[in-house]
Write a structure and sequence with these properties.
Strand content: 25-35%
Structural class: alpha+beta
Number of helices: 9
Largest sheet: 10 strands, antiparallel
Radius of gyration: 24 Å
Shape: globular
Number of domains: 2
Helix content: 10-25%
C-alpha cells in the first residue's frame, strides 16, 4: 500500500548564519525574509547519510544508468530576518603567521536564534516507508548534534542549529487520503523524543574543553563610531561576548601544524584542515563559537599609547583605549573521521595535544598576545568517541581511560609515511 509521511521539524539557529547567492546574503526579494533553499537542505542531508554509511539513494534517489526517483520532497524554508551581525576578518599567511596584504574583509551574517520549519514529504510502500523515515530521523539528529551545518563557514562555527520539535503525520487509507488532499494535518503527532534519542554514531569525535581566561582577551569588533566608547571593543554576538570560531580554529590549526612539523608529519597535520588544491578534501575539523561568561569577573577598560619605533617616544595623537573581557569559556571541537584507523588515531591525538597546550596557558587567543592577553587555563577536557569517553582533569591532574589517550598520543609520535612519500619540515 502507498504511504505518504509528512514530517515537520522546527529548528533554531544557535550561531550566526551565512547562506549566500555567491556574494550577498540570500534573502527573499519580495518579503525580505531569510530563507534556506531546499537544495541546501537536501545536499547537506544526503552528504551526511553517505558519510555515516547509509544508502542515501533510498531517500534522495540517484541518476545514471540505474536512476532512482527521489522519495522525499523538500520545501524552501522561510523565517523572519532578526537582523545582521558584522564581522571583520583577515587571511593569515601560513608560513609567517602574519596577515596577507589586502586580505582584510568585512562580512554580514544573519543573527542567531532564527527559527525555521523544515517540511518533508516522503512517499513509499509498506515495505520501505519505515526505512525512509528512519533515514530522515538520522539526518535531523545529525542536525541537532551540529554534525550537519547549513550555509557557509560551517567549519568555523556558523550554520549550527538545534531541533526544537519534530511532528509527523502518515496517510495510508481512503479517509486519510481525503485528509491529505484537504491538507488537514490535525492528527499530526509529536515525535521529538523518538527522533532525537537515536543512538549517536562513532563517525564523529567530540572534544569539549572547559576553563577560564586567566588574562583578558580582545577579539576586535567592528568600529561603532561612538565617541563615548573605547577605541577597540571585544566582539559580541547578541548580548554575549564571544570568541569566534574563526579565531579559535586559527590558533588550533597553527599549533597542530607546529606539532606535526616537530614529529615530521606536517602534511598530514595540514590535511586535517582540508586542502583546496585537492578535490573533495575539505576540513575535517569543525569548531563552535564560544561564549565568554563574564559573570564574577571585573571588566576594565585600558588606556594605552602608541610608541614611535624610531624615536622610542610617544606618537602624537597616539593615546588610545580598549575594552578586553575576561571570563569562563567552553570550547567545542568536532573531528570528522575518514575511515582510516591510523590517520584517525593520529588526528585525535594531535587535536588533544593542541587543546592540552591551550588549556595549560601555552597558547594565546585574540590580539595583544605580546602584552600577555588571551591566556586560558583548562579545568577539564572530555573526548567523546561514540559511547566511549576520555576525561582529563587539569586541576587534579588525573585522566580516566588514560591508556586509550596514550595510544592516540603515541600514534602522533610514531606516524610514518609509506615508503616513497617524503615529508619536509617548514
Amino acid at each position: 500500500m502507498q504511504y505518504i509521511s509528512i514530517i515537520k521539524a522546527e529548528i533554531e539557529s544557535t550561531s550566526p548564519l551565512f547562506i549566500s547567492d555567491g556574494e550577498d546574503i540570500l534573502l527573499d526579494e519580495e518579503s525580505g525574509m531569510a530563507y534556506i533553499p531546499a537544495t541546501t537542505i537536501a545536499g547537506s542531508f544526503r552528504g551526511y547519510l553517505d558519510f555515516i554509511g547509509e544508502e542515501s539513494d533510498v531517500l534522495f534517489g540517484s541518476s545514471g544508468e540505474k536512476s532512482i526517483k527521489s522519495s522525499v520532497y523538500i520545501s524552501d524554508s522561510y523565517s523572519k530576518n532578526e537582523g545582521f551581525e558584522i564581522r571583520n576578518g583577515i587571511k593569515i599567511e601560513g608560513i609567517t603567521g602574519s596577515s596577507e596584504d589586502g586580505s582584510k574583509i568585512e562580512r554580514f551574517y544573519l543573527k542567531k536564534a532564527i527559527r525555521f520549519t523544515l517540511n518533508f514529504e516522503i512517499e513509499g510502500q509498506d515495505k520501505d516507508i519505515e526505512t525512509k523515515r528512519h533515514l530522515l530521523y538520522k539526518c535531523l539528529q545529525g542536525l541537532n548534534n551540529s554534525f550537519i551545518r547549513l550555509g557557509g563557514n560551517k567549519s568555523n562555527g556558523l550554520g549550527i542549529f538545534k531541533v526544537n520539535r519534530v511532528k509527523e503525520i502518515n496517510f495510508n487509507n481512503r479517509k486519510q487520503w481525503v485528509d491529505y488532499i484537504k491538507k488537514d494535518y490535525s492528527n499530526i503527532q509529536d515525535i521529538t523524543d523518538r527522533v532525537l534519542n537515536e543512538n549517536k554514531n562513532d563517525k564523529f569525535v567530540e572534544f569539549t574543553l572547559n576553563g577560564v581566561l586567566t588574562t583578558p582577551i580582545l577579539v576586535g569588533a567592528p568600529e561603532t563610531f561612538d565617541p563615548e566608547d573605547v577605541d577597540k571593543r571585544s566582539l559580541k554576538s547578541g548580548d554575549n561576548y564571544i570568541i569566534p570560531g574563526s579565531s579559535f580554529k586559527g590558533v588550533l590549526r597553527s599549533r597542530i601544524e607546529c606539532i606535526g612539523n616537530y614529529f615530521n608529519s606536517i602534511r598530514l597535520a595540514k590535511e586535517i584542515f582540508g586542502d583546496l588544491s585537492k578535490e573533495n578534501m575539505l576540513s575535517r575539523v569543525f569548531v563552535n563559537e564560544s561564549i565568554i561568561n563574564i559573570e564574577n569577573f571585573d571588566q576594565i577598560d585600558y588606556n594605552r599609547i602608541k610608541v614611535d619605533k624610531f624615536t622610542g617616544g610617544v606618537r602624537k595623537t597616539g593615546l588610545m583605549d580598549d575594552g578586553p573581557v575576561q571570563g569562563a569559556v567552553e570550547f567545542k571541537v568536532i573531528y570528522k573521521t575518514q575511515n582510516d584507523e591510523e590517520k584517525d588515531s593520529y588526528a585525535i591525538g594531535i587535536i588533544a595535544l593542541a587543546l592540552r597546550d591551550l588549556g595549560t596557558e601555552n597558547l594565546s587567543l585574540g590580539g595583544g598576545y605580546s602584552i600577555g592577553r588571551g591566556r586560558y587555563k583548562g579545568h577539564s577536557m572530555i573526548i567523546t568517541i561514540g559511547d566511549e569517553k576520555i576525561k582529563v582533569d587539569f586541576r587534579n591532574k588525573t585522566v580516566t581511560n588514560e591508556e586509550k589517550l596514550d595510544d592516540y598520543i603515541k600514534s602522533v609520535k610514531t606516524f610514518r609515511y609509506e615508503e616513497g612519500e617524503n615529508e619536509e619540515k617548514i
